[in-house]
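Revision sheet: structure tokens.
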Amino acid sequence: MAGEFGAVLRRLREKAGLTQDELERRSGVSVSTIRGLETGKRSNPRMTTVQQLADALALGSGDREELLRAAVPGRRGGGTGETEASAAEADAAQAGTAQADAAQAGAAAVASPAVPPPASAVRAAPTEAAEQLAKAVAARWQREEEQRRIQDPYPLPVRWKAASEELTDHWANILRLPPGVPSGPLDLSGRLEGIAETYRSIPSGRLVVLGRSGSGKTVLTLRFVLDHLRSRTPAEPVPVIFSIGAWDPTAVTLRDWLTEQLTRDHPGTAAPGPGKVSLASALVDSGRVLPVLDGFDEMADGLRRPALEALNATTLPLVLTSRPAEYAAAVAETDVLTSAAPIELTALTLDDLDHYLPRTTRKTDRSDPAAGAWQPVLKKLREPSPDGSPAPLATVLSTPLMVALARTVYSDTPEHDPAELLDTERFPGVQELEEHLLDNFLPTVYRRSRPGARGWDPERVQRWLGHLARHLTELRTPDLAWWRLGHGLRGSTRTLVTALVTALVIGLVDGALSTAFSGSPAGGVLDGTVAGLLAGLLFGLVHWFTYTVTGKDVQPSAVRLRIRGRPRSTKWRAGSRLVIGTLGGAFFGSAYGFMVGLLRALSLHAGPAAALETGLIDAIVFGLVFGGAAGLSFCLLGLLETPLDIVSAVSPGSVLRADRRTVLIQLGFWAPVFGAAVGLGAGVVVDLLQGHLGQLVMDPMSSLMLGTISGLGGALGYTLTLTAWGQWCLLARVWLPLTGRLPWAVAAFLDDAYQRGVLRQAGAVYQFRHARLQSRLARRRRRG
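Predicted:
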């Protein structure tokens, strides 16, 4: 049947005079999928795909029926012998609904046993994951909308109009029309509550939202996601917001970056999916994710052109937001976003302010319920100016961002009088007014106490938030990730601090345990010093080569350890862990053994040749012992790991807690297993090599001490240098507070800033309330 469908599709495509590339542009189906269907390499095409191809080919009823008949096994031309199941399935397929896939699978199983059932199971895994993802995304952004007080007392009236023709692609491309069919522009004007309908009216599924700074683009994307999910059918993709400002198109492809971001915000999508790829990759590749790319203007200047070219290289439906100037500059360098319909947000009017601001203040006159602090200000703004130009305050309050700041500074603080904003000597222009609102936002929100929250010194808060803003500006990303807070330091400094703290911790543990076993404080101090320095050096080198040299981040764990109740679909992948653990352990053990043997021989006044021989022998013994123990421990960890649920991570705090729990469980598992393997393995290796390398000595007490110290030391070194939570503890909880850059209670401070509206949550990371606020804080920090 797959071959019949491919032959029919190829014949109809050639009849329409289209190449595979042209059919891709019209239908939105990738050329690799079309090629696979025509050659028979891809079987059982989805009904949504078949309908897209039929629409793009502009097939008549007869040709459409032939294509559907070839795609659906057992479907006949409507004769009396057609089964009820086939008829029901075909009608559902013609409608293009999600139920069509299920009907197709059921009918195909009855009418054509030759079709392999695993294909349906393969499609079911991403489909089920998409439904879980939709629920998680809806719950997340519903909470975020409540936190941002968007509905209090009601959303500001964000409106838009069609953008200029210079930024718009050909309407025939946007409408997906066949050649020769006349086309005209769509009416794209609308309001906030109609954004989902506006998007669905665009056949290409590509929308660009343009608006000046603070005009409400981010709020619009949030509203779009919630409204789209409320009316979404199972056949439609799940809208997911991605902060595109963090994407480097010159280093990572769009699909790979979307997969990484999806895995970061929803660790459960790291679970294996069909075709030996992750669920995140399967969701992105199968078109079940609708990327909502927020903040194109926040990308570095040199990255916008390659980003736009990369977006044009795909046919993915998407929503892109940007400031008009940055988008227009990128378009001038390359081209418009192919098949995208752009809209531009319009300014708020004085009528909007009259309706909104008075309802955000307390009533001051019981005899006149409408009276309030904003009434005289708004009345003054309606008075004509001598030159006919709008008042600076009216211009400032034409964006939702500045209205929200003005509400915070004046409406929510009764002792502040908004009439001072009319003082033209103090605020002669728009810039002075905006800077005043931005600068007074933090003192205002931190002046109010929150129930159950600690009091923060406003000056220190300004310094801490300034450090974070400058940190993000230097990293060229809007995403404030707790596992990247240490990246505010230079790579060499970060590695040096990691090595020194690791050496100190392991040295103290080794010294205390050595003293307890041997009863000699001097020997314990010596052994702890040697072990600590060597461990710090080796773990520091591992951290340097693993992360600093490669430029990679220490990512939070996307798994948890589970012995009972493991999902049946979980794949036990321990082979790679065995190899990596064995090689890493052998390297560490060889270096450690060589240094210990060399120092021990030199302390006994042995000659250079004898000391070198002793060091090499110990290097062989310890390399075998540590290599085998590390390989076994990593192998067992791999066997017990199972992916997190898709809905498990909904905030930075939950990701931090999940990673901490996983790391502590790994620490509790690693220490005894690795220690026991080292202690027992030492005796076994000594017995096997006895005589081959000379007279070797390893008594039971030495094996016990070696195993205990190695277990704890290895677990602590691994935790501090190679896990996200370990680096968080070492850098964000110790070093940065010690140097005054952050408070000691970093997690509580970030959560409090979120509760006060200074930060917002975007999945697993925080972001500043607005890029303007981040930029202002960063500039003030640099001046300071």
